[in-house]
Amino acid sequence: METVRLTTAEAIVRYLIAQRTIIDGNEVALFPGVYAIFGHGNVTCLGHALQEAGDALPTWRGQNEQGMALAATAFAKAKRRRQIMVATSSVGPGATNMITAAGVAHSNRLPLLLISGDTFASRVPDPVLQQVEHFGEPSTTVNDSFRAVSRYWDRIMRPEQLVSSLPHAVHTMLDPATCGPAFIGLPQDVQAEAYDFPVRFFDTVVHEIARPRADQGQLAAAVGAIAQANKPLIICGGGVHYSLAEAELRAFAEAHNVPVVETVAGKASLLASHPLNAGPIGVTGCTSANALANEADVVIAVGTRLEDFTTGSWTVFKNASVRIVGVNVARFDATKHQALAVTGDARETLRELTSLLGGYRASDDWTDTAAAETAQYHAYIDKIAAPGGGEAGELPTYAQVVGAIDRVAGPDDFALAAAGGFPGEVNNGWRAKALNSFDCEYGFSCMGYEISGGWGAAMALPDKTVTVFVGDGSYMMLNSDLYSSVLSGHKMIVIVCDNGGYAVINRLQVNQGGAPFNNLLADSRIVEEVRVDFAAHARAVGCEAETVTSITELDAAYARAQAADRTYVITLQTHQNSWTEGGAWWEVGVPEVSPRQSVLDARAELEEGKTGQRVGW
Predict the structure, then answer these.
(1) Where would a tag sit more exposed on the chain, N or C end, judged by fewer CB atoms within 10 A?
(2) Which fold has domain 216-376?
């Protein structure tokens, strides 16, 4: 057997370079790059190997380990899981900084390869700098923290373990049923050790994403349920995007006259202008989608994990006889809530269902109802998003800010947001003019994703304009990748809405009977309310930036941002208490006892809301 002598670190890099994939008929790198912050634990070995790799595996310098791993996650989402970025850190805090990003990737079913330095396998130098010692478990390091947020986890204790571990990591990330982050821990001495690796281990491998077909019995059961439906409804989730199933979704809906509603992850699976698109469903959704969910007798859930913001904590389905048909490549998701599971690839399953259902079509009365409800939704958004904010002394609203960008957006525009107040606003107010033109991280609801995610999306989509919507709270949590985007030349437009703190969680606090406390700056323990000059900060890290005070000024500034040659930040103060309405009920914990009558009233409303929850099916 022919061998080649390499260090563990060199072997990892060579193996990653050998992995290829197919996108739009073209063979490209499966791992197109590495985000890295070097320190002891990855600089002297892995860093050296990456330098030697050069353009074969480009390394991009991050500013914060969490940020660069979030950028990698957003890159994978923009690429619809067809390419995977790597993030590498040193030991200790460098590693633990990436745990949050791993949680984002895990909850959103996105591939991310994390490689972190570790302590010494020999333990001779222990305790090393940044080592957290576990008195009764000497083999435990901070890298064990990744077990809770990884689909695949391994610590390489001998070089030859790579021969089995790396393929398992890659296939875990590429399997649509298990897709998520993979973690590799590299003890400092092990990554420096050399081994005679089989040459064939580094042969080029061209991967294609598997498309498992559903069981024929499952298909027959699903067809039997759908064919009897009077008011069928499709809920499309992120799996529609990852399966590249947008055309099949449209074909199925049109062939069988079925209205479509979208989850946050599934948004932009069908153009907003399509007559069967009834808008976003759930807590951050709209009146039309939720009204249809209330009446539906068969819900075809395609590629969604049916989290509580989609289902209104399982209150949006009010038809007593409703059945769910769960179309999902992951059995865990397909079988939720006693669904008729159809475990298979979304694209192929929709094709088969379309054929098997033959001439079945829902009644025009049902789609007429959907169209009427949807028209009311759009009219409401048009009204609250109309320009004028800031013109007469009233601060602009989030809805007006999103509306301003939505009105000028075209097919080459990509919107990105996360957490806070923006999910409800962009989910309703951004009307997709192109497929796969939207990313709102709401699986993990990670504040700080926005700017780092924008950098990753801009890197993944060089021909699109990536517009990031971010609040002042998220901006303050993680903004250093503004600098990364300037250094690397990956332009994005960032809209910063400053409403004086964590305004949307203040809304939840107050709406559940609490007093405003520790969310808005004005209600926090401070000596002076100092508002940040976000434009000045952005200019300080190399961006072009300006502050505006009205929607009219925002329109003009956005045009300047489009013409700019680098990341452009536009900031404005926005209304603290004006939000888009129309979402579903949501269960949160409210105290059973309290000295505040408002809390007791909120608890009574909670108990009332729970009467509409579906526990058994």
Answers:
(1) N
(2) Rossmann fold (3.40.50)
Could you give the CA distance from residue 520 to residue 573 in angstroms, rounded to a whole number?
A: 14
Reported as a single tens digit per residue, the pLDDT across 53-103 is 999 999 999 999 999 999 999 999 999 999 999 999 999 999 999 999 999
- Pair type for strands 181-187 and 152-155: parallel
CB atoms within 10 A of CB 140: 14
Query: Is 294 within 8 Å of 585 (Cβ atoms)?
Result: no
| pLDDT-derived band at 614, boundaries 50, 70, 90 | confident
Strand order across the 493-498 sheet:
438-441, 413-418, 465-471, 493-498, 568-573, 544-547
Residue 391 has pLDDT above 80, yes or no: no
Taking the C-alpha atoms of residue 437 and residue 80, their distance in angstroms, rounded to an integer, is 11
- Average pLDDT of the chain to the nearest whole number: 97
Is residue 47 over pLDDT 90? yes
Instruction: Give me the percent of the chain exceeding a pLDDT of 70.
Output: 99
145 neighbors 175 (Cβ within 8 angstroms): no
Residue 392: pLDDT band (50, 70, 90) is: low
Q: Residue range 610-614: average pLDDT?
A: 92
> Strand, helix or coil at 124?
coil
Domain ranges of the chain: 3-207, 216-376, 385-573
pLDDT band at 615 (very low <50, low <70, confident <90, very high): confident
Helices of type H across 44-203: 46-53, 65-78, 93-96, 99-107, 162-174
Domain 385-573 in the same topology as domain 3-207: yes
Beta strands in 1-56 (DSSP E): 3-7, 19-23, 26-29, 34-36
Q: What percentage of the chain reaches a pLDDT higher than 90?
A: 97
Q: What is the mean pLDDT of residues 204-210?
A: 97
pLDDT value at 617 more than 70 = no
Give the Cα separation of 259 and 292 in Å (integer): 9
Provide the H-helix boundaries in 130-266: 162-174, 216-227, 238-242, 246-256
CATH 3.40.50.80 at 385-573, yes or no = no
Based on C-alpha coordinates, what's the Rg of the chain?
A: 25
Q: CA distances (Å), 468 to each of 112, 388, 414, 496, in order?
A: 22, 22, 9, 8
Residue 108 has pLDDT above 90, yes or no: yes
DSSP assignment of 569-614 equals: EEEEE--SS--------------SS-S-HHHHHHHHHHHHHHTT--
Residue 590 and residue 247: Cα distance in Å, rounded? Answer: 43
Tell me which CATH homologous superfamily contains domain 3-207.
Thiamin diphosphate (ThDP)-binding fold, Pyr/PP domains (3.40.50.970)
Closest CA to 582 of 379, 281, 300: 281
Q: How far is CA 483 from CA 16, 35, 500, 537, 581, in A?
A: 28, 14, 24, 11, 35
Of 14, 29, 42, 73, nearest to 184 by C-alpha is 42
Residues 331 and 526: their CA atoms lie apart, in Å, by 50
Spatial neighbors of 116 by CB under 8 A, at least 6 apart, are 41, 42, 88, 89, 90, 91, 94, 95, 98, 143, 146, 183, 184, 185, 186
